[in-house]
Amino acid sequence: MTTAEADPLPPGCLTDPARPLTFTFEGRTVQAVQGQSIGAALYAAGVRTFSRSFKYHRPRGLFCVSGDCPNCLMQVDGRPNVRTCIEPARQGQVVRCQNAWPSLSFDMMRVFDRLDRFLPVGFYYKRFHKPRWLWPVFERVVRHIAGLGRINVHATPDLDREVEHLHCEVCVVGGGPAGLAAASAAVEAGADVLLLERQPVLGGGLLYEGKRLEDVPGLHDAPASNADRRRTLLGTTAFGLYEGNLLAAVQGERLLKIRAGQIIVCTGSRQPPALFHNNDLPGVMSLDGVLRLARLYGVRAGRRAVVLGDVRASAERREQLASLGIQLVEMIPYPPPDLSSYPDAIQARGSRRVKAVRVTPVNDRGEVVPSRLAEYPCDLVCVATDEVPANELLLQGGMRFHYQAGRWQPASRVAGLLAAGAAGGIVDVEAQVADGRQRGREAAALLGYAVPATDGHTYADRARAAGSGTAEAIRRGRDVDGDGRLGKRFVCLCEDVTVKDIDRAVAEGFDGIETLKRYSTVTMGPCQGKMCSQTAVALCARATGREINAVGVTTSRPPAVPVELAVLAAERRHHPVRHTPLHHWHEAAGARWMDAGQWKRPESYGDPAAEVRVVRTSVGLIDVSTLGKIELVGPDAAELLERVYLNAWADLAVGRARYGVMCTEEGIIFDDGVGARLGPEHFYMTATTGNAEAVFQWLEMWRTTWRLNVTVLNQTSALAAVNLAGPRSRDVLGRLTALDLSRSAFPYPALRQADVGGVPCRLLRVGFVGELGYEIHCPSAYGWHLWEALLEAGRAFGVKPFGVEAQRILRLEKGHLIVGQDTDALADALGAGLERMVRFGKPLFHGREPLLRFKDMAPRARLVGFDIPDGTRVKGDQDWARALEGCQVVERRRPVGRVTSARHSPTLEKYIGLAWVPASRAAPGETFEVRCDGTDVPARVAPTPFYDPEGQRLKS
Amino acid sequence: VVTHYAGAQAEAEAARSGLAVADISAFAKVSLRGAGVPDLVRALAPDGPAMKPQGVSAVPSRQALACRLTDDHVLVLGATPEGTALRQQLAQLVEGRHVVQTDATSAYAGFWMLGPRLEEVLRRLTQLDIRPAALPEGSCAETALAGVEALLVRPGGLALPLVRVYVAWDLGEYVWERLLDAGRGGLMAPVGLEVLALIGAPAHGFGTPN
To answer: Residue A42 — φ and ψ, nearest 5°?
Structure first.
């Protein structure tokens, strides 16, 4: 067991020392306390190397302790790339290093650090191209080496994430001084405020800067009566700002989608790394990181520290560090105060952790002067650089930032979006509070609340709070190319991009910040530019001789922080399933299910071939509730149908039914179904299961477009439907209704309305399966009753339920096409053999013009029936027949068409199907071949229908 | 129609402290569409919120709610499964007006969600702003809920927060399961219609707007 450091600091404000826990790191047991981060616990246990860098595999230690930099990424309980500096330690966690082999302390791939001359910037664009035959080897090696962490592709993914939609008038992102002040001011004004804070407690920077929330005036001025107007979500990180002021945030494993009238971003700031040699050694930390480690988690970062920063703040730094029990060894000015001469070369020394800082003066020729060495032994280097705004959300929202007076400042306004505090470029805590209050009032005023007049504080005024100008100092400073001798200076810790890399990339012509980013990969790592963007821009400006604002910044896109894909997919956890009113009957009957869009349909009840035989010889019953059912009522109902269907409807007599096909304006088959006339101005149409909603919307759209006086009603959900089919169906139905079912009184195709089993129904004589049959529609609530009544009435006739598979075989025997299966986005009505449906005499209908053109042209392809000569395959192999569906029709080994449907017909005892073939090969008796599983199967064009070609049975 | 599950008293307590969900799919519903709908609504619920789209008015004489979905579409929600009288009365009103009347009882499944934790559960299922300020009593909204189209009706008239949810009949079972899932962890309990009477809702818990 690794023991904790002796002489610890007082407990961190996020921790509960009374609740100890343990976890393992690389097989060793590590002690921690509740609330402590994994990184802090490891640091307390003496771990200094947390990871290996992406490219050179250099040892890396804690730097920011805020989850911004990549230095602490580890594999936790199998999850890769966990930011352990902020990830709370939990009992029993298994923590492992990543990107190191064989171990974190001894990584063989460290050799890349010595081979850097062979791995210059953009080397992956230049290497591995030749010889081409070696690429597969390169690829395997590169894939093995590249990337961070490992995903267990064999694990069952845990995708159960929740999403919650929140609405508020003002959303304040960040619970630091500016955020609290903004929330307080907005609440005071009467607004409904949602406050997001990523830490488990409020306070932001105050927590680790040693200030107490209670001592900061202006944070709690809201009257108690307004207290319930503020909702606070702790442990919540906003990661994306989208159009319409939609803010995405993650709270634990829950996705929050927040719509706010006004968003105030108070996300604070961060300290980027300073540019000096070996600036990535473990032990080099941001000053804020040192403070966070101590005050949030109760862990001291070191004993003797060298600080790089503004020497004017020496006394403050000394006091800060002393309060943590850390001795300030030396304060080294950073950025260099004199930009006219070469600055001293600063070098962190040590192999696995920092042991000293050496300052080497440089002469006016840019050469180091070894005789004038100054070396400061230490175990900690604190980087106290200028803070840069944590402004990712603001940039995503469209706000622009300019560099002025030594600091990044907002330079534009965006409706609904405000910046406050350090995120807006303000450093001083009191000024942040004042700024927060002002932005809170401003947000409330923009929402229409009466608030005191603004105090005139504008974005421009912030320029008065000038920074020390680190970026400008880098741009104007003179540089010593001492990377080789004194060690690398990293700009981007994520991607191992050095100062030299940036200079080289610019020299190679990548002198725009966006192209520089893509070529060098600076800002493209896990931190997404949080730690390196400012420095990269400054170096680009220096190398190109431009102003910083002329260089601009890279584009910020969501997510601003790493978010699990499962969280992003939380919205998609809903998978609607539609059940017909008979669903549970089918389930109890042992139905095998198939998906039809959102519907669950019984594919069969065990033996589709037997179900086919029952329908052909006796009577069967199928649930067709999924069909689209649409009513059209009004004087223009017939006119609308005339215009959207290929065939005629105006001449349909009341009580009669008709098969109809509708096309798009391009003449492509869109849907088909049966329609019937209920009255002079009243039609009842059916649509295919998959197109029910689309057909309804299509009719609605064209009704509106043509301003026709017709009401279109979608009755799909309201009505259940069953199809009673087979030569004995009349006998069965006759037991349940007083309706005259004789051939003359209820002919094919027609519609009648009558009670069946006491239920008011619409009955359609249809023939999709090619037998005497009745499609019976009734209110959904009565669907079960009707079904059971029909089964009971049909018991004496051997009635059986049949599923979709049997229905498909039955219709195929009749040669009926299924829209969507036998047709596609190029299938026109003429090619599909529906010429007889098209009434070109109508003045206007969808597809008329293209179909007229098609008519004049010889069709290129036709949908034909085919059968497979006997002896090709043992009879009854439905799996083999189904495998033919989608196979290519080939001619001299070239694809010329495709099979759309194929089955073995139990009735005809042969394999039959439908296929698109060249028109020249569409005549009955023509032969072609179907390529299936590498074998060419002979087939022969056959006339359709295959079964009962005269239609005597369905008209009986 | 389910009268109760575990026990009416316990279910009433669940409604008062958390959230209760009741299946009211069987209650009568009538859809009225056409250019004559504004005139019809004037006769049905004069000067009520239903005079405008997204408004909901009580129709006390018929113990029904009129939900104005669009300018030319109003959905009348009955208070009981028996809808014959309601349909006949509406048919008389429709006479002579350019309105198409259809029985929508089997078109929609309906659920009554009642209790102080109503918003907490609905927030997990819909992006609609369901705060009382955005969806006040006497209003309705068509929106997506658990990935399907739904109608949310806030009739009011009860001491506890109440929203009725209507979805296509064939999606009723799916949405019922999604509601229970969103309210898992003891947040929500399915209740029978007896409970609605126990908590002071008139006519099988039929609330009317203030």
So the answer is: -65, -40
User: Does any CB of chain B come closer than 8 Å to the CB of residue A631?
Assistant: yes
Q: How far apart are CA A48 and CA A62, in angstroms?
A: 7
Q: How far apart are CA A301 and CA A75, in angstroms?
A: 23
Q: Which of A166, A259, A574 sits opposite B178 (nearest CB)?
A: A574
pTM, rounded to two decimals: 0.88
> A681 and chain B: CB distance < 8 Å anywhere?
no
Return d(Cα A128, Cα A471) in angstroms, integer.
36
Question: A298: which DSSP letter?
Answer: -
Q: DSSP state, B55?
A: B
Nearest CA in chain B to A718: B107
Give residue for tokens 């107490």.
A212
N- to C-terminal Cα distance for chain B?
27
Contact between B101 and B89 under an 8 Å Cβ cutoff? The reply is no
For the segment A404-463, what is each residue's pLDDT rounded down to a tens digit?
Answer: 888 899 999 999 999 999 999 998 888 999 999 999 999 999 999 998 765 544 544 544
Interface of B with A (CB under 8 A): 26, 31, 33-34, 100, 102-108, 123-124, 126-129, 131, 134, 146-148, 168-174, 178
Whole-number Å distance between alpha carbons of A812 and A45: 74
Number of A/B CB contacts below 8 angstroms equals 85
CB contact under 8 A, B170 and A579: yes
Distance of CA A97 to the CA centre of its chain: 28
Residues of chain A with pLDDT under 70: 1-8, 218, 220-227, 372, 453-468, 481-484, 872
List of residues 6+ apart from A215 with CB closer than 8 A: none
Give B103→chain A minimum CA distance, Å. 9
Task: Give the residue from B182, B117, B108, B180 showing the smallest Cα distance to B151.
Answer: B108
**What is the least distance, in Å, from the CA of B166 to any CA of chain A?**
12
Per residue in A281-296, pLDDT (tens digit) is 999 999 999 999 999 9
In B36-121, the DSSP E strands lie at 56-59, 64-70, 73-78, 100-103, 108-114
The C-alpha torsion from A789 through A791 and A797 to A799, rounded to 10°, is 150
Query: Residue A652 in 3-state DSSP?
Result: coil
